[in-house]
Amino acid sequence: MKIRALALACLAGLALPTAAQAQNRLILVNTQDLSTICSSSNAFFIGNNPSSVELVGDRLFVGGFNNSGVGGTNTYFTVIGNIFGTRTFLRPAASVIAMPNSRGFTGMDYMEGQGLLMTYDAGSFGTANQVRLWDIDTQINPILVRSSPASFSPRGGSGPAWDAGFDGQGFNDGVSVRPVPSVFDGSTASGGGSGLNPALLSGDSFDLLFFPGGGSISISGAPLRGTFWRDADIHPTNGTIVARAADDVVIATRNGANDVLGTRTIVTGGLDPGGNVPQTIGQNVAIMNGFPGGDVIVYNSRALTAAGQPFAGVVKFINMNGTARTMSFENLDGSPVTFPTGNAYYSFSWDAKNQRLAIADFANRIAWIFIANCPADYDSTGFIDSDDFVTFVADFAEGCTAAGTPGAADPNYSCFANADFDRSGFVDSDDFVAFVTAFSNGCF
């Protein structure tokens, strides 16, 4: 009661902002210049362009692309730590790939407690190690746990995804029930299956295979236009598969046997509605599960690959049923973010735990970090009102109760959900001042 009285007393001296909905806005909180690690003279060189990113707390994992014109050029992924403060850089052991020309890392997907999946495209089947699993939870510098062997050699032309099944509980592999890593495989048109039980399929579309081995799920069938999958994401609690091919977005729901049936929604992504571009790289997608106002899918339309394309024309958002969703990108002061033109190659990573979206720009070698909520919408209701202030004051009085050790050195530490409003790693008077300022400014 004393805390509530204190909060109300503080409110009495402030002009309460008008309630404003925040479900369709993304607030820019950080910009990462990736050009330095795209220089071959840099010790943490990733390749000529960033082609894949994964955001985990205050760490950004960046995989590169070989645009040198020379095949077999060493290409890496690098970990940028403490992105909200003084950046640190790590190059994991065994991260180097002798990358063919015009190939690169194609995707990453992290699941807490399971690890970081990563794929790169060797340009052909039968090459081992195109799918890799890294331990980033117990190690500051990631440790390679497993690579795809030559006996299971999907081409890494599509990004990977963790799959926890239709109910979010995972799969029974005879030892435990757990999520499984999954990748698309284009080495055969008939090696698909139903759930975890292999079965023959017809058609020329490709199948979603579990890694390593053990059955598959197919999303084949009309009216799919493409025969080369480029990226995929899987909803962590209901198993909905979202995949990219031919610049379309395919949304496939699951039943209790983990088959893909029921709905299969095709969203034409191309600027040319009749276009079919199955061989075009850089078609990416991410499910923003837990986004305020409902889950949303972000993807980039890449029917055209020329330079000079506006960001707003190619980065798109849709609801889980395929209907369009309008999203605004705003600076902290409420002004619209200005983006450079590019070549429509963007990669995405949604950090659901912290409600942050990373978007990496291949052409301009930049990564932007957005937060989903208006900063002062402390209780994430979509509105700013007195409840936000009361809740913040209560958390401020309690201090930071998050697990881990304050500071960027401990990746398990995340106090932003409590009262560490300025994300300094500590709860102090600066947080109170920062929150009061944001609250006074309202939701823009």
* Helical coverage, percent range: under 10%
Mean pLDDT: 79
Question: What is the terminal-to-terminal distance?
Answer: 31 Å
The geometry reads as globular
Please compute the radius of gyration using only Cα atoms: 22 Å
Number of strands: 30
Largest beta-sheet details? 8 strands, antiparallel
Tally the helices: what do you get?
4
Share of residues in strands: 25-35%
Uncertain stretches of 5 or more adjacent residues? 18-22, 187-214, 403-414
SS class: mainly beta
List the helices and strands and how they pair.
Blueprint: H1 2-12, E1 25-33, E2 49-56, E3 59-66, E4 73-75, E5 77-81, E6 88-90, E7 97-99, E8 103-111, E9 115-120, E10 131-135, E11 143-147, E12 161-163, E13 171-172, E14 177-178, E15 180-185, E16 193-194, E17 197-198, E18 207-210, E19 216-218, E20 229-234, E21 241-245, E22 248-254, E23 260-268, E24 285-288, E25 296-300, H2 311-314, E26 315-319, E27 328-330, E28 346-351, E29 356-361, E30 366-371, H3 386-398, H4 429-441
Helix pairs in contact: 1-3, 3-4
Describe this structure in words.
Helices cover 9% and strands 34% of the residues. By secondary structure, it is mainly β. The strands form eight sheets. Strands 2, 3, 5, 6, 8, 9, 10 and 11 form an eight-stranded antiparallel β-sheet that branches. Strands 27-1-30-29-28 form a five-stranded mixed β-sheet, with no helix packed on it. The two termini are 31 Å apart. Residues 18-22, 187-214 and 403-414 have low confidence and may be disordered.
Brief overview, please?
The chain is mostly beta strands and 444 residues long.
